[in-house]
């Protein structure tokens, strides 16, 4: 399914497949459009199954001109059946897509893989990004693997873990005194005058396509079937909308039958412009100043917000928000029932899933997939002080005093 | 009030290939009207038929999104700087 143009989501004006992201006529966002499929479902399925155990097995659905050249294998992460979590929530069939298994421990490796591969095709020699942390990690790592210099722009108050894990790759870290939206604005200005591929600015249409592979893998790992409902986090709204697009493309290709799942979006209450718009019955997302521990979701001015609201409505889903305390509880709940330690964004997703289940919004017979998009090792402060450590002398007596007399060992 | 407007690359072809313009007005809206008076084609690129900003156009006054201020009614002072940028999703 070769890409044939960049197309404005607002007014459908088309442009060549180069480094651009905004419609010159109406300022609407551009996305990749594809020529109609010429392969049968059997042919497509065979090509996918013969492909590598990375996101490139879905090359038929990705916007590259030639074979992808990336050095850091990404994707094909585990889809784990989460029976213990399902039982706690009163659900029958729950799956967790574990994106912590990617090379830099978040789903951002997917979007960067596609953006970087396309940037190299377009002749770029330097890559950059505006990031809330995970993207900076991924850009720094994939650029290092490809041997390209990189510049990552982050809010100066980002979690130390994310800064340290990014600096290790030898990138140029630019810590901007301001929130993510200020970083994004700066990068938008810089991208106009610099010959760099800003993965989420001037090559964003290609970048965004990477998120579709979350849906492709989910369907394939479910034995070429669709979930009934998914729960995914919303920051800019790009992942959430592209996951739905991925399911849609597999349905249109004849690889699966059924409908796009009920799409549930998850935000932190301290940065919930899309959830607020959904609740108010409008697609106008008023920007907010983020104040939440879920820094990877702290985008106060989400450009894909209107499309996220439309998608939730079109699929019978919803967009919910949860408090910082609920996020911390979500991180613990997921860890204790699945063995996956997620960062705050996964806490948001888990907490929204729990909230929907508690409200009876999920039919117990539904097959539900939750997208856990990042790793808890990057936001360690979230769990600090939420458990006790028993410090003892190396003595059997002290151990027994601490545990046996307490009846726990 | 004399105000400087910085234009994104995507709009410069409609502004004589300039990256900025000097305009007049007491509010952001008046400053933009003054910009349209200089470069007529910019109006339809930035604003809808009713004069409101299109939904993927962001305008900043001194670095602050005008939606946090009074929108197009936000007062401007001599020497202020407006920046027009396309909304772009993050990560």
Short description:
Chain A is α/β, with parallel strands linked by helices and 409 residues long. In chain A, 37% of the residues lie in helices and 15% in strands. Chain A folds into two domains: 199 residues, Rossmann fold; 101 residues, Rossmann fold (3-Layer(aba) Sandwich), CATH 3.40.50.
How would you characterize the overall build of this protein?
The complex is a heterodimer of chains A (409) and B (91). Chain A is an alpha/beta fold and 409 residues long. Chain A has helices at residues 41-49, 83-89, 108-121, 134-146, 160-167, 180-191, 204-209, 212-221, 238-252, 273-280, 305-314, 324-338, 344-358, 396-404; strands at residues 3-8, 14-15, 30-34, 79-81, 93-98, 127-130, 150-155, 172-176, 197-198, 229-233, 262-268, 318-322, 367-372. Chain A folds into two domains: 79-105 and 211-382, Rossmann fold, CATH 3.40.50.1100; 108-208, 3-Layer(aba) Sandwich (Rossmann fold). Chain A has a six-stranded mixed sheet, with helices on both faces. Chain A has a four-stranded parallel sheet with strand order 8-7-6-9. In chain A, strand 1 and strand 2 form a beta hairpin. In chain A, helix 2 (83-89) packs across helix 12, helix 4 (134-146) packs parallel to helix 5 (160-167) and helix 10 (273-280) crosses helix 11. Chain A is globular. Chain B has one domain: Ubiquitin-like (UB roll) (Roll). Chain B is 19% helix and 25% strand. Chain B is built from two helices and five strands, in the order ββααβββ. Chain B has helices at residues 28-38, 41-46, and strands spanning 2-6, 20-24, 57-61, 64-65, 81-86. Chain B has a five-stranded mixed sheet, with helices on one face. The longest helix of chain B has 11 residues, at 28-38. The radius of gyration of chain B is 12 Å and the shape is globular. Chains A and B meet through helix 6 and helix 7 of A and strand 3 and strand 5 of B.
